[in-house]
Description:
The protein is mainly beta. It has a single domain, classed as Class I glutamine amidotransferase (GATase) domain (Rossmann fold, 3-Layer(aba) Sandwich). It is 8% helix and 32% strand. The protein contains one helix and ten strands, in the order βββαβββββββ. The strands form three sheets. A four-stranded mixed β-sheet has the order 3-4-7-8, with helices on one face. The protein has a four-stranded antiparallel β-sheet with strand order 5-6-9-10, with no helix packed on it. A two-stranded antiparallel sheet has the order 1-2. Strand 9 and strand 10 form a beta hairpin. The N and C termini lie far apart (35 Å).
Amino acid sequence: xxxxxxxxxxxxxxxxxxxxxxxxxxNIIFDTHFMARGRIGRLIQVVTSNPTCIGVGIxxxxxxxxxxxGVAEIVGTGQVIIVDGGSIGHSNIMNIKPGEPxxxxxxxxxxxxxxxxYDFKKRGVLTPPS
Length: 130
């Protein structure tokens, strides 16, 4: 769970602080007020530091319904951003000092809206039926 970090400093090492959270789900990092506050850098930093985790940025007027099978459905009129670090090939985050800019490659980002689903086990988007 992210508990501190300015949006505009999100891609500078150490500017975002996180904690294990409540333990309701494992390996998923949630960030709220995502679109209105421009928090993409925050989520990229935390996922880069924890590449086995998947980041979920929840926008205003939107929600994520996570079911027991590992599939989440997006609901509402807003937007959810998924940040997946499972394919990160390189990052400098372990070799830089706090305050220095982060370099990272192959971060996957998905933008999802009402009716779309995301499979956390397979790390993939499920589109609504036509």
